[in-house]
Every structure is written in structure tokens, then in C-alpha cells.
């Protein structure tokens, strides 16, 4: 039998389950452990928690790399870059502090992260924020690598956040973010753990793409478990590696895309399970 020990709650509303108290974890910690020789088979890695104190509490970034099938010794293939703190490049430049995913069903197009056994629960407002590295290159046009975000209560069963590509021609790529509803990798990242220390859930100040657990499909049994048990792990997948149900083909991608680039994932209402 497990009991739930409150580790974190940002005080913007009440998370379900046991009452929680705000924990002041002190200054931002952006240190990470070395992953070692990237030519060896990948094994799950744990790094120190990266925390960001805000006016409303302390946000925890996912810091466990549970699964990174694309890890290797090529540039941007070190998954530690997805858990060492977010370093956004702003509106007109993508960050280079990122782990690059693949871009096709046959490539290593996903990354699974966790919070060291902690669970993110549904609270007031968005509960997760995903930071990729899109940027604008002309007015109204944005370079994007759209990302499908999935959550799991146990690392086995998964449910996707609702997402819908709504371009007039869904077999053609659109540079308009308005056509990529429910995807991450759409909004440029302004948050930077050294140069622009802001609340990750303040969209105007931080950028990135936020997700509310209350928006999970109501008719999916895994959604019900996530709302009851919390999110143990989060998975981000390049959209072009998944099938668009409207076309029966993979989601389209920018012709120069080589897969999504993950800078980090933040959790808002975190509780920790202990035996």
C-alpha cells in the first residue's frame, strides 16, 4: 500500500487527492549528471531536479530520461539536453540546447521523461508545459516541428492530448500555428533559465505550449486513471511519425524538418509517492 507525500503544489488552485504544501526548494538548479559514453546502449538516466521558483510556487521540470531511442553521439542526440533546463532562443531563433527526435515512423521519434517517481496532477489551469524550438521567419509564418504529447499513469498505458491538424489541405504543410491545434512545438520559447527566468506557465512571458489534464479525452479509460492517479511519465513524439486519422497518412512536416527538438517539460502540481 502506498501513501502520498506532498512534494509540490503551485498555489493557483487545489490539486486532487491529499492536501499539499508549498515547498521552497531554493535557487534554480540546472546541474545535470553526465550520461557517459553515448555509443553504448541507452539506459534510463536520472539527473538532479531543475526547479524554478515563481511568484506562485515552485515548478519542477521533468528530470528522468526514461526512454530515448534516438540517443547517440550525433549532434543534439544527448537526451540530457532535454532535462538540463530550458534555454529558449526567442521569437526568431530556435534553441540549440535541445535533444533532437526522429521524424518518421521508422526513426527514433519519441522521448519519454519522468519526475523521479513524482506524479503531476490536474489543478487549476494548465498542468504541463512543453518547450520545443519553433521560430518565426516572416510575419505569419513559423518554422515548426509539431509534437504529439502523451501521458501515462504507469509507464505502460498511454493517452494522447487531443490534437487536430486543420489546414484546408491536410496533405500539405501549413506554416500557420493556428492550423496545429493541440500540438506542442508550435509556440516559440522565451523562457531561459539563465537569461529570462519567468514562470513556465506564464505563456506570454515563457512561450512554449501548455496542456491541461482536464482536456484529455473523456471517454478514454486511461484519461480517467491519469486524473485519479496522476501523470507518472510524459512522452513527446514528432507528429510526422504518427498517422493523421483524417488522411490515413503520417502528419505532414515542413520540407526541411528533421524531427522535433525538445528543450524541456515542466510539471505544475507534483506529488511524490513513497512506500
Description:
By secondary structure, the chain is mostly beta strands. The protein has one domain (3-32, 43-274). The protein has two helices and 22 strands. The strands form seven sheets. It has a six-stranded antiparallel sheet. The N and C termini lie close together (7 Å). Residues 1-43 have low confidence and may be disordered.
What oligomerization state is this entry in? single chain
The helix/strand order is EEEEEEEEEEEEEEEHEHEEEEEE
Number of helices: 2
Indicate the percent of residues in helices.
under 10%
Strand order of the largest sheet: 2-5-7-17-12-13
- The gross shape turns out to be globular
Q: Work out the radius of gyration.
A: 18 Å
Uncertain regions spanning at least 5 consecutive residues: 1-43
| Structural class assignment | mainly beta
SS strand fraction: 25-35%
For the terminal residues, how far apart are their CA atoms?
7 Å
Q: Kindly report the average pLDDT value.
A: 82
The largest sheet, given as strand count, sense and whether it forms a barrel, is: 6 strands, antiparallel
Total domain modules: 1
Number of strand segments: 22
Amino acid at each position: 500500500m502506498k501513501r502520498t507525500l506532498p512534494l509540490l503544489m503551485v498555489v493557483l488552485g487545489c490539486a486532487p487527492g491529499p492536501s499539499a504544501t508549498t515547498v521552497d526548494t531554493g535557487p534554480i538548479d540546472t546541474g545535470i549528471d553526465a550520461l557517459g559514453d553515448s555509443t553504448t546502449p541507452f539506459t534510463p538516466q536520472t539527473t538532479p531536479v531543475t526547479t524554478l521558483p515563481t511568484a506562485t510556487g515552485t515548478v519542477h521540470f521533468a528530470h528522468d530520461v526514461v526512454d530515448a531511442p534516438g540517443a547517440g553521439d550525433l549532434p543534439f542526440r544527448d537526451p540530457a539536453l532535454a532535462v538540463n533546463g530550458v534555454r529558449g532562443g526567442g521569437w526568431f531563433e530556435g534553441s540549440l540546447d535541445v535533444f533532437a527526435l526522429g521524424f518518421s515512423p521508422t526513426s527514433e521519434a519519441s522521448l519519454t521523461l519522468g519526475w523521479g517517481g513524482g506524479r503531476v496532477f490536474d489543478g487549476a489551469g494548465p498542468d504541463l508545459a512543453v518547450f520545443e524550438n519553433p521560430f518565426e521567419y516572416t510575419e505569419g509564418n513559423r518554422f515548426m516541428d509539431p509534437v504529439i504529447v502523451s501521458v501515462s499513469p504507469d509507464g505502460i498505458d498511454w493517452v494522447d492530448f487531443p490534437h487536430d491538424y486543420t489546414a484546408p489541405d491536410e496533405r500539405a504543410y501549413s506554416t500557420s500555428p493556428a492550423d496545429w491545434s493541440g500540438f506542442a512545438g508550435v509556440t516559440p520559447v522565451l523562457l531561459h533559465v539563465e537569461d529570462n527566468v519567468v514562470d513556465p506557465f506564464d505563456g506570454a512571458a515563457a512561450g512554449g505550449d501548455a496542456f491541461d489534464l482536464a482536456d484529455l479525452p473523456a471517454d478514454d479509460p486511461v484519461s480517467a486513471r491519469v486524473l485519479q492517479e496522476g501523470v507518472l511519465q510524459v512522452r513527446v513524439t514528432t507528429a510526422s511519425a504518427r498517422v493523421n486519422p483524417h488522411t490515413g497518412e503520417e502528419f505532414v512536416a515542413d520540407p526541411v524538418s528533421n524531427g522535433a527538438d525538445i528543450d524541456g517539460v515542466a510539471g505544475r502540481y507534483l506529488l511524490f509517492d513513497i512506500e
